[in-house]
Design goal:
By secondary structure, the chain is an alpha+beta fold. Among the domains are: about 85-205, Beta-Lactamase (2-Layer Sandwich); about 390-595, Heat Shock Protein 90 (2-Layer Sandwich), CATH 3.30.565. Helix content is about 55%, strand content about 20%. It has 15 helices and 17 strands. The protein has helices spanning about 1-40, 50-85, 90-95, 100-120, 155-165, 205-210, 245-250, 290-325, 325-340, 355-420, 430-445, 450-470, 495-505, 540-550, 560-575, and strands at about 125-135, 145, 170-175, 180-190, 190-200, 220, 230, 255-260, 265-275, 285-290, 450, 475-480, 490, 515-520, 525-530, 575-585, 590-595. A five-stranded mixed β-sheet has the order 2-1-5-4-3. Strands 7-6-10-9-8 form a five-stranded antiparallel β-sheet.
Amino acid sequence: MKRENHSGTRGSMLPRFRHIRSKLLFSYVFILIIPCVLLGYGFLHVFDQMLVRQKLQDSEKEALVLSENMEYTLNGITDVLSDFCSDAEVWAYFHHQYTYPDSSIKGYYNLIQPAINRYLKLHSEILSASLYTNNPTVVTNQSEIHALVSGSEEENLMKHLLDNRLVWTMVSIEQKGQPRLVAARVLSLYQQPVGLFCVRIDPDSLQRLVGTEREAGSASIISHEGRIVLSSVESLIGQNATDTELAQALNHTQEGEAELTLAGQKHEAIIIPFQVDDCNTDWYLVQTETAEELHRLANANSTVVSGLGFIILTLMGLLSVWFANGLTRRLSTISSGIAQVSMGDFSVRVNVGGEDEVSALATSLNGMTGRLDNLVNENAEIRIQKRELEIAEREAKLYALQSQINPHFIFNTLEAVQFGIHTHLTGTEGIVNLLARNLRRIASWESDTVRLCDELVNIDEHLKIQQFRYGDKLRYRIDVAPDVMNIVMPKLLLQPLVENAVTHGVAMKLGGGTVTVSGRREKDTVILSVEDDGVGMDELTREELRQTLHLGTRANLHGIGLKNVYDRLMLYYGDKARFDLISAENEGTRVTLTLLEVAPDASVDC
């Protein structure tokens, strides 16, 4: 029953579908095509010679366009070579003698790789770019940077450029057993070559400019060195033009038309010279058409298309307005709806009436816009949920790191109190009260962030407790400019740095020392630092801290507080903050937090 219902529906729709198609076929066959064919038949022989000439003119225009496209493309490649090889920083990078590989690798990621990626993004015809250097201190990766091997194709190419004083060249060289089209230029400055810059060209993108499938004739590109670098005839690629039959045309004229014989057939050759940057002589586009093919096209196709096509198209345009007026009006309605959809309005619905193909198209458009509308709404909800999850995860990490500081801080503070109790020092009771007040203040901070002035009050009390333990051995100074007192920052961000300065710096130095907390503003940048003149760190300890902070290795006791501060700083500020540590053995340590894009606070000072 289901199959019969489907067939019946299809049968009921066919007459409606045939209605539009029948009107169009009737107008084309009986009103346009038959009269036009009869009229055009008498003009077939008249336009024969005219169309042959027209074909040659079209070929010349095509050749001119091809030469302009090729000139534009090649100039784009020379711009890449010139831009890269004229860069003094790039030359200095390959000329410099590196003591440590890390310096070379850093220059690669900061200078070489971004430049190459930019070229690949801007020039689709470039597949890859490689540098060959004879500097053994530059780290190679066998991807963008290679060592210049003696006797290799690249070394021979570099010698060819230098010996012939060529700015650049385009050749086909063997790489990994396969021929590749390469444009190369010597990386040289101050007459000191330091390497070879090669860009691998996509031969298909260039080949499309000259045409790979031609019914007759050929198109070839001859470089300023006289080498055929591209051709629709594959056997000609890579040969010197003077060794081929194209030399007949090149010797006959340097621009225009010439006759030559290729493979026993007469050809009409069109030669277009064009200029490419940094080349001292012209490049040439040589396009050929066989005389036989010109006449065949004129007799078989061009006459009919040119003679009858104009009449047919004219009559078709006039009569189609009358027959298809109703159809085009409805299609315009659908086109307007599609235009609204292309601008992002998925709520549009069109109503064209009827039950033919046009109405089916309108129904399909309405169904599509409905589904798109639903998908856009669903996608927006998913993005909102994803953002909320990311914010929750970030807040959880901050909370976990802040929770890690509290026990560590209380433990160190209680040690000072314990010391006073065991040694029966006067003032221990006051220190206990100070500790209790300090802890109550921290507990009263409901938010994850506090003002800097509140953080400094907490730090001042903590240093007083530590002074009770270490006595005159510990001195401290807080020097923070008033215009940064009201900035909001994660709570207990500076306290671990102060605690490290006391415990690992001043306390371990014979005779004690001074802890200095400072802060200042430079335009929209706030610089906070904690410095001590204690025992400092040796090179091994500094390297361990670097591994702890930047590479995420397991922290020692010295680095727990610093790692915590670094992680919270990165989570809260991201790339708008910087963490710097400077330390020298027996001289002291300074930790600097640089906060970028912190606008001045107009509120009342603390």
